[in-house]
Design brief:
The protein is mainly alpha-helical. The protein is built from three helices and two strands; from the N terminus they run αααββ. Strands 1-2 form a two-stranded antiparallel sheet. Helix 1 packs antiparallel against helix 2 and helix 1 packs parallel to helix 3.
Length: 103
């Protein structure tokens, strides 16, 4: 896949992740502006090494958003209701003192 295609795919993926992570939060959905600004500011970059580095940073940001961010809704003065997405909820796996190695 060419670099231009990778950049476009990352751009689209970041926006999809932003929409999923910040669903129903209009203020947080404005992260769209920051994503667009970052891509626009690096639009004239020609160094393949620098472009790969920027793609790596963007991919890391997308992974962080997708796996670590949950929404919180203020329900009262000192109360926050957490709204985790289904993909963040994991099965409760019992602890094992002697883990086995995968072959």
């Amino acid at each position: 896949m060419g670099q231009a295609a990778k950049v476009l795919q990352l751009f689209k993926t970041l926006h999809r992740t932003r929409q999923r992570v910040f669903k129903n939060d209009t203020r947080a959905l404005e992260a769209r502006i920051k994503i667009n600004e970052e891509f626009k500011s690096n639009k004239s970059e020609t160094s393949p090494k620098k472009i790969e580095e920027l793609i790596k940073i963007g991919s890391d940001v997308e992974l962080l958003l997708r796996t670590s961010v949950i929404q919180g809704i203020h329900t009262d003065y000192n109360t926050l209701k957490l709204v985790p997405r289904k993909e963040l909820l994991i099965e409760n796996v019992p602890y094992c003192d002697a883990p086995t190695q995968k072959q």
